[in-house]
Amino acid sequence: MSSSSEQSPLDVADTSSPSPQVANELPSPPVFAFARLLEPQYLLVIASALVVIWLGAHGSLRRPPSAAPPKLKRGEKKREEEKFVEGLVASDAIRFPLMLAAVLMGLYYLIQWLQDPAILNQILRGYMSIMSVAGLSALAGDALDNLTSLIFPTMWADGKGQVHHIDTHRRCQYVVDEKTSEETVIKGKDTPLPGRLSSLALSPSTRHFLWELHHLLTQEWTVRLAVRGKTLVKGELHVNDLLRFAIAGAVSVAYHFTRWDALSNLLSMAMCYFSFLMFSPTSFTIGSMVLASLFIYDVVMVFYTPYMITVAKNIDAPIKLVFTSAKGASMLGLGDIVVPGMLMALALRFDLFQHYQRQTRLEPVELATETETDTASGTVTVATTTTQHRRVKAPYVDTRGQWGNRFWTTPFGRLSPVPRAADTVAATAFPKPYFYASIAGYAAGMLVTLTVMLIFNHGQPALLYLVPGVTGSLWLTGLVRGEVKDMWGYTEDGSLDTEDVVVVVEVDAEGNVVKESKKKEGEEGKTGKDGAEKNGGVEEKDKGHDGATAGHHELLLFSITASPTLT
Question: Per the record, where are the segments of Polar residues compositional bias (predicted)?
């Protein structure tokens, strides 16, 4: 017996449909349905969906509005913060179902007219092969970055919980005294390798090679294209950036010619991952509204029209995950991952927002005011001083490069890093109650979907079970924690980010905020005497003609500049 899960052409809603030979069978006893859930293809369906959502949600982490910009380390340049390409609005709850229904009906009648969808499938496979390059390059790039951090972390912990830091500038390893904050270089540990590998007796040439390899994989290259003295393109590049595009292109070409299910699954997962990085539901309210509208769309298209199942059965493109075994095949449409997964990723970012919000402290500020009073002897100026408080945010710790650190600072048998690895704890091991609740809700929805499908031998609209499972688990968690108001007010439209605003608050005797006022700060960049802009402690002067020699200009220049290795 085989079952299949079908997907709409735009990857936003899907259904499950049994094969024709089992469509009219009598319902199966529940005990047999529960037993079949242990078959490999069904376990792979659930596991693959949860893994993609977990990876995509963590990959979508950004600096939350409750955190200050990260502190720059020695020799580090200020990074441009990533922004979501598009955030959903309330009108999307109406626009999405209508748009998807129009496209779905158009494909349905096109398939009916063509009779043989081979040409349409060929066009769609070519289109998806090209479009998947961006998603696959993002997935491959993040995977390579995590692999690099796993091989060359910036810290590791020994059996006593002592954190060893790896200094690439001095080419040594050191520990920090908790009381004095003094750094002590460890003799004999002069390689970039962590753990027991750091104690290996290596030749000078081998140590030099490891440091050079570490520098090559972690350094930034400056790529510049100039025409007639004017810079057209200038940006930062890593070795992994070159590798990820090569991997993405190779996999896409291989899929286009082979059409292997394994490559199709990889491309489908990459597109889901990319969706989490690019789009945001904006708020829990808007996300829940969009999910509710697609919930209705999915039910109508599956139970009351032939469009969804007909189109999905005839489309052969990377728009679903396909798993086969000796007992049959199972498919999961990308919509079952992307639609609820976007809200689950928002839940993880809300957890991060709350984590930094709890670290916000009130710093006392002395405010001096002068008032003029007219008296018989003339005007008298009276100076008064009041103490108020300034809200100070904790600096954000970027998650990039921290997963390797987490592995090397987490003792065997524990799930979290040692407390001394503060940056790693802040970036990866912060409390995640809402995200874990949504994971549980999604897993429960998937189990119910598969169980009902196997009992009745009939396709089920997966969002019928996934939407209540995810949204219900999130809002119920907020209700239990007494944070429904916080969930309702949280948004990623930029209105909560007060990075350039000074918030001065008044507190009562118990330290509770009773009043707050805001005012704009000066520009972040400060200008030196020579007009050079200071950015993170590094001054960049205008060289004129983009660095060209005085009196000359570059007709055509393409350069890749790497920072020098330090010894």
Answer: 1-22
Task: Please identify which residue in the block is written with the tokens 């999961």.
Answer: 332
Cβ 539 vs Cβ 532: under 8 Å? yes
Q: Write the CB contacts of 35 (distance below 8 Å, at least 6 apart in sequence).
A: none
Whole-structure pTM value:
0.81
Structure tokens given for 380: 């008298």
Is residue 142 within 8 Å of residue 399, measured between CB atoms? no
Residue type, 254: A
Contact 321, 268 (CB under 8 A): yes
pLDDT of residue 346: 96
Which residue type, as a one-letter code, is found at position 78? K
Average pLDDT of the chain?
A: 79
Q: Rounded to 5 degrees, what are φ and ψ at 345?
A: -65, -40
What is the full DSSP assignment across 486-532? HHHH-B-SSTT--TTEEEEEEE-TTS-EEEEEEEEPPPSSEE-TTSP
Residue 507 CB-half CA count within 13 A: 16
Position 14 scores a pLDDT of: 34
Q: Whole-angstrom Cα distance, residue 52 to residue 411? A: 26
pLDDT digits (tens, 9 = 90+) for 87-139: 888 898 899 889 988 988 888 888 888 877 778 878 887 777 777 888 899 99
3-class DSSP assignment, residue 189: coil
Q: What is d(CA 309, CA 296) in angstroms, rounded to the nearest whole number?
A: 16
CA distance 439 to 445: 10
Residue 225, classed as helix, strand or coil, is strand
Query: What CA–CA distance (Å, rounded) separates 276 from 441?
Result: 19
Q: What is the pLDDT of residues 482-539, one digit of tens each?
A: 999 999 999 998 888 765 444 555 555 555 555 555 554 444 344 444 444 444 444 4
Residue closest to 359 by CA, chosen among 274, 458, 430, 275: 430
**Is residue 323 a contact partner of residue 260, using CB atoms and an 8 Å limit?**
no
